[in-house]
Amino acid sequence: MGDLDTREQVHPGTAPGEDLVLEIRGDGDFDTADMTLSIGPAHPATHGVLRVILEMDGEKIRDAHPVIGYMHRGFEKLAEARDFRQIMALTNRHDWLSGFSNELGVALAAERLMEFEVPDRAQWIRMLLAEWNRVLNHLMFVGSYAIELGAITPMFYAFREREDIQFLLESATGGRLHFTYNQVGGVKIDLPKGFMKESTDLSAMVRKRLQDYVDLVLGNEIFHARTKGIGPLPPEVALAYGVTGPTLQAAGVPEDSRVTEPYLKYGEIDVRVPTGTNGDSFDRFAVLLGRIEASLDLIDQIHDHMPAGPVNSKLPKIVKAPEGYTYIRTENPLGQLGYYLESDGGKNPWRLKMRTPSFSNVQVLPYLLRGALVPDAVAILGSVFFVVGDVDR
């Protein structure tokens, strides 16, 4: 690998304490040996039970092979044995950091198939909680990525904000991780008294505290050294692999389902999509912080647009979908989440298929890891944002 051969030569008669004489020769390469290194399936850099097998040439990664399936739960098959209202509880769990956004997508798919009209207030409430869930998700990755690189303080800061947001969401939904707040035709119950003021105050506070992450992480010279130029992802490669969300936007592609195919009321407000320039680990983290600020902008706009009125539609005792199929895509915190829903006219889905963002993000890992050094593997793994349950489903 190198072109220098350094050998320590001690000349006869060297007394204790005297400097050793080093002879440096450039007449050969260092010998390296091929090695297989397994990261995971239980490793703090993998964001879940994922295994990555690295083929090494010395300290350089020659190839990488993600091994998935450790957390497969068979959600798509389980949905065939549940009715359209019951599957909401199942969708919370494949990406446990995005529970509200998960159930939102399947609710929209069912409503489109059944041609339900959802009250305006319910749509604005869904948007408000989806954006808070997005901030909640991103804060986890902001804190965990820093700790993977050796900085523990940002994780404490992230959980400070996360606790405040989870308390807010719990006051409306009754849940902290698994909200089950969406239902076919709207939401389960109206927002509690005082929720809008608490949401407004919390938005201002989180926005002010974002500067802490810039000071602690984004402006840190050690963080720059560990992430700039590490794991660059060209836009054409990202698109070829189907990468979406902050990982794609960091490569300079402003793709966002809320803009390109608006749902709910996103077409009535200004949605800003942060992008990067180099697509490296630094840009992926910077875009994640930018998305938090963009979601806070949306939250403030939703506060100004929130109407009065009902929050759900009256449903029959047994909800059935007409025979047919539909597909809807939503912008989940980690990227594009698509639901293909097919009905045979009964009360249960005949087929439910998910296109999850984490699966495509994991696919691109071999490309990013090839040619990298072992110390950079953790920096690359942590910056490609995924949840393993979202991969395995």
Strand composition percent: 5-15%
The number of domains is 1
Order of helices and strands: EEEEEHHHHHEEHHHHHHEEEHHHH
Roughly how many Å is the radius of gyration?
25 Å
Termini Cα gap: 42 Å
What percent of the residues sit in helical stretches (DSSP H or I)?
40-55%
What is the CATH level 1 assignment? Mainly Alpha
| Class per helix and strand makeup | alpha+beta
Main beta sheet: strand number and arrangement?
3 strands, antiparallel
The side-by-side strand order for the widest beta sheet comes to 3-4-5
> CATH H level: which superfamily?
Cytochrome-c3 Hydrogenase, chain B
How much is the average pLDDT?
89
**Would you identify the regions where 5 or more consecutive residues have pLDDT less than 50?**
1-14, 19-26
Topology-level CATH name = Cytochrome-c3 Hydrogenase, chain B
Number of strand elements = 10
Total helical segments: 15
- Give the overall silhouette: globular
Per CATH, the architecture is Orthogonal Bundle
Structure description:
The protein has helices at 75-78, 87-91, 99-114, 120-148, 153-173, 195-218, 221-227, 235-241, 246-249, 257-260, 281-305, 357-363, 365-369, 374-383, 388-392, and strands at 5-9, 21-25, 34-39, 51-57, 60-67, 182-183, 186-187, 324-332, 335-343, 351-355. It is globular. A hairpin with a 2-residue loop joins strand 4 and strand 5 (60-67). The protein has 15 helices and 10 strands. It has a 3-stranded antiparallel beta sheet. A 3-stranded antiparallel beta sheet has the order 8-9-10. The model is unreliable at 1-14 and 19-26 (pLDDT under 50).
